[in-house]
């Protein structure tokens, strides 16, 4: 079996894994990324909070946003279809905050190019199982038969919770099963309210999010409180979207792994925690989890005696962020025209 050795093996090349890689490369740590899919791979169109700017600048990737021609937005229309109110993102001394509409696939591709230019090795394979040294995670084995030994293994492989499953760490649900569906296309002129975008429209069964993610390319995402995880996703919920893509369904059940770090491993991004897309913070949470984990790893490399407390620090910090975002989302839903049944009962 061929062997590799490195400081960090990162499973998954989404925003969490790529942020971790950039942070590690800044300190000359050796990084192997394991990602089975060829980029650009599918990822939904996303609205990015302007808070991503300083994180990307810290990683030396600020130009990704400043050089890109993204659609910017100052706020969001929200409410029932007959009573929409505009909510600005906020402002500071430098003026109004403006979010970014991005196609996730392109964003990740550009970030991955940067990571490879800066010296990471990319292995096109899928993580299979964990290599252990006593109680410690010491790397991974891939489906293709490689063994990659590493000082630290970072799971950034998304919401299937690869490492938590490997290590029997429980992933606790905080909502009933929730599925969101997304479609892309143009808007028909009849009844469209292009001026009121991005828009969150609540109805008695859930919400619909409409945004222009690229010029004249619209994304409609729907969350129905009652959708069954095992049911085939329904096609077109939007009267105004001329859909050009198939319906993509995602498991967006609110959930969080009970332990996010331990001997030799860290769990990042959606692999650690998921909230539904209304929280609009998945990407920034993914980026900051990657940076936080690697900053702690840098301390650990010089002060290994701090191991236990630093693993706990990471778990506490990330879980605090999760619950803070969850509380904001609950508040948002409770103030909306249609509070989900499982929150109104509490
Ligand atoms: C419909 C929808 C809309 C959303 N909209 C927004 C939004 O507007 N704003 C926002 O901030 N967030 C949004 N999110 C959330 C956001 O997309 C995620 O939080 C973010 O992509 C998480 O990044 P990640 O790097 O943790 O995981 P991912 O982006 O899922 O990346 C994981 C990577 O791991 C790879 N992988 C999987 N298994 C393996 C394996 N075994 N071995 C190796 N590699 C593997 C995958 O191929 C993938 O490339 C949305 C989510 C959904 C579902």
Oligomer: single chain
Q: What number is the mean pLDDT?
A: 90
Structural class by SSE content: alpha+beta
Q: Which spans of ≥5 residues are poorly predicted at pLDDT below 50?
A: none
CATH class designation of the largest domain: Alpha Beta
CATH topology of the largest domain: FAD/NAD(P)-binding domain
How many beta strands in the DSSP annotation? 24
Bound molecules: flavin-adenine dinucleotide
* Alpha carbon gap, first and last residue: 54 Å
In total, the number of domains comes to 2
Strand content: 25-35%
CATH architecture of the largest domain: 3-Layer(bba) Sandwich
How many helices does DSSP assign?
9
**Molecular shape:** globular
**The CATH superfamily title of the largest domain:** FAD/NAD(P)-binding domain
| Percent helix | 25-40%
Q: What Rg, in angstroms, do the CA atoms define?
A: 20 Å
Could you give a quick summary of the protein structure above?
The chain has 346 residues and is an alpha+beta fold. It has helices spanning 15-26, 52-58, 63-66, 104-117, 162-166, 269-272, 282-302, 307-335, 341-344, and strands spanning 3-11, 31-34, 45-48, 71-73, 75-80, 83-88, 91-92, 95-96, 99-103, 121-123, 127-133, 136-142, 147-155, 171-173, 179-187, 199-203, 206-214, 217-224, 241-243, 248-251, 255-257, 261-262, 265-267, 273-274. The strands form 5 sheets. Strands 1, 2, 10, 11, 12, 13, 22 and 23 form an 8-stranded mixed β-sheet that branches.
